[in-house]
Amino acid sequence: MKKLLKKFQVMLKPEWKWPLLAFVCGAVLMVLLGAYGFFSQRAALSQVQSELATVLAETAGLAENVPRKVALYFIGEVEGKSLLVPEVRTIGPTAEPEKAALRELIKGPETEGLKPVLPPKTTIRSLEIDNGLAVVDLSQEAVRIDRGSWGEALVVWSVVNTLTKFPEVEAVRILIEGQPAETLAGHFDLSRPLRRNEQAIRDNWTR
Fold first, then answer.
1. Residue 88 phi, psi (nearest 5)
2. Which of 77, 97, 112, 186 has the lowest CB atom count within 10 Å?
3. pLDDT class for 203, splitting at 50, 70, 90?
4. Distance between terminal CA atoms of the chain?
5. What is the distance between the alpha carbons of residues 4 and 11, in angstroms, rounded to a whole number?
């Protein structure tokens, strides 16, 4: 204890006073500069994040205010077999382009020779997209189809392929009147989410 006290007394000698004071001041200054830099970086990061959010919001707003082209899939005869044929259509500005595309699909094809897929009185009760999964709720009219097993499969794939053309949709689940449906008309399994089916599509279709 005496040695420690003696050492402390030595540090308090006049010749040690100013170097020690300078060291302490330097240490305090470094701590203050470090804290200033840290908070300055946080403020700058917050400003960048705020500006980025603003740009994204403005970009989304611009996307909602311009027409866009969508691909709809209708039934066409290809070498004696029914397949899905894409029809490109322009939809007006909308914040819900996926729902607008389905409405156009229900209206039926504009290209001569193609067949509609859903009954014209079908309505979209809701459409929600979350984490790549689109859950579309159709009215009861959607089940009023009589196309056999393959025709029913094409109706389902037309909805799935139309929606999965949008980059934010990876899979589709179809409900009828808010309830899970096993099938549309007794053939095609709807109990699970469905992904895009390119095998059912024929791009270079000619009538």
1. -85, 130
2. 112
3. confident
4. 104
5. 11
Three-state DSSP state, 95? coil
Out of 2-11, 61-70, 106-115, 145-154, least confident range: 2-11
Count other C-beta atoms under 10 Å from residue 160's C-beta: 25
> Would 207 be classed as within a structural domain?
no
Parallel, antiparallel or unpaired: strands 179-180 and 171-176:
antiparallel
The total of other beta-carbon atoms located within 10 Å of residue 181's CB is 17
Q: Are both 38 and 72 inside the same structural domain?
A: no
Regarding whether 178 and 153 lie in a shared domain, the answer is yes
d(CA 10, CA 82): 100
pLDDT > 50? residue 23:
yes
H helices of the chain, where?
2-11, 14-64, 97-107, 148-164
Same structural domain, 154 and 186: yes
pTM exceeding the 0.70 threshold for the entire prediction: no
DSSP 178: T
Give, in order, the Cα–Cα distances in Å from 135 to each of 36, 44, 128, 138. 50, 40, 5, 10
| Residue 22 phi, psi dihedral angles, 5° rounding | -65, -40
**Beta-carbon neighbour count of residue 118 at 10 Å?**
22
Q: What is the extent of the structural domain holding 13?
A: 2-64
Strands 133-138 and 124-130: antiparallel
